[in-house]
Design goal:
InterPro entries: IGPD_sf (IPR038494), ImidazoleglycerolP_deHydtase (IPR000807), Ribosomal_Su5_D2-typ_SF (IPR020568). The strands form two sheets. The protein has a four-stranded mixed β-sheet with strand order 1-2-6-3, covered by helices on one side. Strands 4-5 form a two-stranded antiparallel ribbon. By secondary structure, it is α+β, with helices and mostly antiparallel strands. The longest helix has 18 residues. It contains three helices and six strands. The relative contact order is 0.31. Helices cover about 30% and strands about 30% of the residues. It has one domain: Imidazole glycerol phosphate dehydratase, domain 1 (Ribosomal Protein S5, domain 2), CATH 3.30.230.40.
């Protein structure tokens, strides 16, 4: 769906990046809607599950998105803190998706200089 929505990619910024500071997590996402799929994933979620959610699905989601959309995507965990309570592990996932959302919004923004 994302590949179809991007069309010929004319008129968009193409590049986007955002760092999301969320409590003890600091996640940086940088992307290029280049048409060349590549994922660099450096995120260490301290547990394998957050509630009933398998945390390995985060990387799987982004790999699938990269493969089908042809984007270059770098996800970098800049700060790491081992929380005492396992419930805080969701912060890493939440910060990752928030940073990605801001970066994709920036990359898909219209810029007439790119026509």
């Amino acid at each position: 769906a994302l590949l179809h929505a991007l069309g010929d990619r004319k008129g968009i910024n193409r590049f986007g990046n955002f760092s999301a500071p969320l409590d003890e997590a600091l996640i940086h996402v940088s992307l290029d809607l280049s048409g060349r799929p590549h994922l660099s994933y450096n995120l260490d979620i301290p547990t394998q599950r957050v509630g009933t959610y398998d945390t390995q699905l985060v990387e799987h989601f982004f790999q699938s998105l990269v493969n089908t959309s042809g984007m270059t995507l770098h996800i970098q965990q800049l700060m790491f803190y081992i929380p005492i309570l396992k419930t805080f592990n969701r912060i890493y996932i939440e910060a990752t998706f928030k940073a990605f959302a801001r970066a994709i919004r920036q990359a898909t923004g219209y810029d007439p200089r790119h026509l």
